[in-house]
Amino acid sequence: MSWIPLVWSVAAGVCFCLAGLHFLVWLRSRESTASLLFSTAAIAAGAIGLQEILLLRAQTATEYGELLRWMHLSVAIIVIASVWFIRLHLRAGRLWLAWSISGLRALALIVNFQASTNATFSEITSLRFVPWLGEVFSIPIGEPNPWRMLIHASTVLLLIYVVDVGITTWRRVDRRRAVILCGAISAVIVLGVIFSQLMVWQVMPGPFSGLIFLLIVLAMAAELSIDLIRARQTAADLRRSEAWMSHAALAANLGMWDWDITRDRISGTRSGLVQAGLADDERLTLERFLESVHAEDRGSVRQAIRRVVEDGEPVDIEYRMVDSRGGARWISARGEADRGPDGKPRHVRGVTIDITSQKRKDAELQQQRDQLAHIQRVSALGQLSSALAHEISQPLGAMLRNAEAGELYLKKTPPELDEVNAILGDIQRDGKRAAAIIDRMRSFLMPRESVLETLELKELLEQVATFLRAEFRAYDTRLVLDLPRVLPAVRGDRIQLQQVVLNLLLNSLEALSEFPSERREVVIRASSMAGVVEVAVFDSGPGFSADRMHSAFEPFMSTKRTGTGIGLAICKTIIDSHGGRIWAEHNPGGGAILRFTLPAVQGVVAT
Amino acid sequence: MSPPGRRGGESFGREREGSAVSADRPVVFVVDDDAAFLAGATRLLRASGYAVAPFASATEFLAQRAPCAAGCVVVDLDMPGMDGLALQAALAGSDAPLPVVFLTGRGDVPASVRAMRSGAEDFLTKTAPKEELIAAIERALKREARERNDRARRQELQARFERLTSREREVLVHVLRGRLNKQIAADLGIDERSVKRHRTSLMSKIEVASVAELARLAAEVDAQPPKGR
Prior knowledge:
The structure holds two protein chains of two kinds.
Chain A: H1 3-28, H2 33-56, H3 61-90, H4 95-114, E1 121-132, E2 135-144, H5 148-171, H6 175-200, H7 209-251, E3 254-260, E4 265-268, H8 270-275, H9 286-291, H10 295-311, E5 315-322, E6 328-339, E7 345-354, H11 356-411, H12 417-445, E8 453-455, H13 457-474, E9 478-482, E10 488-492, H14 494-511, E11 521-529, E12 532-539, H15 546-551, H16 567-577, E13 581-586, E14 592-605
Parallel strand pairs in A: 9-11
Antiparallel strand pairs in A: 1-2, 3-4, 3-7, 5-6, 6-7, 8-10, 10-14, 11-12, 12-14, 13-14
Helix pairs in contact in A: 1-2, 1-7, 2-3, 2-7, 3-4, 3-5, 4-5, 5-6, 6-7, 11-12, 11-13, 11-16, 13-14, 14-16
Chain B: H1 12-21, E1 27-31, H2 35-47, E2 51-55, H3 58-64, E3 71-76, H4 84-92, E4 100-104, H5 109-117, E5 122-125, H6 130-162, H7 166-176, H8 181-188, H9 192-206, H10 211-223
Parallel strand pairs in B: 1-2, 1-3, 3-4, 4-5
């Protein structure tokens, strides 16, 4: 058996083998275009090997010319594939060079297939048969094709391109790659030139391109294999971090999920699916998931999904899931869209966490706060009872006097009906006035859960001032409201915020009780800036001592004889739960200033 | 049930002006800052036959009232500015103090004690029945009428005593001490006849027939000397 077919066939076999391997890789993961380019290049290299076996044994000039023509195709494929492989794999190289090389090669191919023989020879006149190392080689004799300059030009550009990539990669500290890939290709080009020259000098009977191109394929294969080895390492790392992740998820009661938007399929960790109210054996779609969301929350969940799909906004929602037994669980979900190459979201991935017990605790805490606030309201109202009794006895007394007068007017002959009419009108008005006072007291006395609503703070302050008018009068203290014409609305619980203002005013009122009447004045001021509304209560009482200033809002710190010591503490609890701040200051004019802030509701302006 | 048969029911403004100047007909002055109660109370008292003059504040009342007007004051204890007690104090310092009936919404014990001590006629809650209110007003008016009579009588007696000459006054002092004419003559260094003449003159000026009666009237004048002397 002669050695040429043997060596060349082995080389071609290696190439095909590697090509097949990486084609499979590409089939499995379509994103690895580098693998596809590599297997194309490897197939071309293998083809070159086989073609060369035939070429070296061609018997006629025509046969040789035809074989060489097809070999040009293989070479063009391998060059173009290598250029783009390098660009893709090393993320380097000048685009215009890559295109120029590809263009020149394509042009050379056109010439190749248009010419009577091929791109190398415009005509092959005859073949010489040369014995070399125990084999007989066919060597063509003929006219070189002037268009072969195209091939030379593309080869020069290729060399520049590869050297450029090599330098860039070297500078990126990725030296191994620079050496392997760029070194191999540069070596192949140089070798090719040398072999061609040797052939011209008739030292070698042929360019032995089959072996040369094998070098490129091996270099590329080495590159990809290193990636595969690295992928193994990555996979191990991944397994380890997955293990950590699943422990963390278990410990934190986290569920993980992935919604494939195009296929409408939800997958996830077991706990993630259970939290989502789904069994892990069924085919899960978005609709199936939404079915198990609490009907009241379904709208907001749908909205969040639309936002993530259409606008790519991250998901961050809380909702209730109804499990098979009909119980509701609170879930907090966070996630983000994963975009495809076209920028459209393909997947939404994220985590869920069961926050039911947190919610329950929050609710219990809120309930306790509400109860405490209620107790304090009742106690504050007790303090006001005398003034309130006075206030309510005004309309009641007026009604009684009017009714008695009406009776007398009716007994007259003739009855004075006009007067009676006027009296009835007044009685109605006073009845409403008394009812309003009672309503105000009842709203304060009833135990209730806090209800959030958008409130006009100015109106609220005026209501409290009206409520306390009688009390301030009883203590001969002026209450001055200094409010701007316009104040932004706030979001909160009406009764609790009224309670805060009431406590602050009562606090100031009591602080003033030992002072002469001309000093007894409490001023409420309100202002707003930068999305915050501030209310300040000024008094000219004794003020706080330095250490009391900070502990003023702690419970049971009252310095007053009558105080329960929870009024200001309740204020702090309420303001905190409304996202605001409350603090005490020295009044430069003597006394104290108690201030609190609340976030303003954007876009709504009270007039 | 219904109060003494005086006719009420005149219009608000006319009544107020008319009664404020009328010295013979007693007026109920109602002072309350709560307009609704003021109107209701005014209506009731007017329908009950009183002359009523409503005022929205104590200062307004003090500025506008005729000093000689007869009647009583019904006043709210809790008012901004001058309250009921301050009004009572101001009235007590005047020439013709009027009795005060206090109304309160709060049944405040310390305030009511102070009010009663300083001579409040009555202390009622605003929702007290009409009968109590009217009874309190009646008591106040009666007391005012009595005090007014007393004041008039005292003034008249005062005038009688003022008619005496200085010698007659000297004689009067001795007579009230129960001394005989002879002793008085010796003390004053005049003769007994002159003493007798002065004595007769002063008895007729004071319009009394006996020394006992003279002593009673003298005690009455002494007990509460006229103001401004």
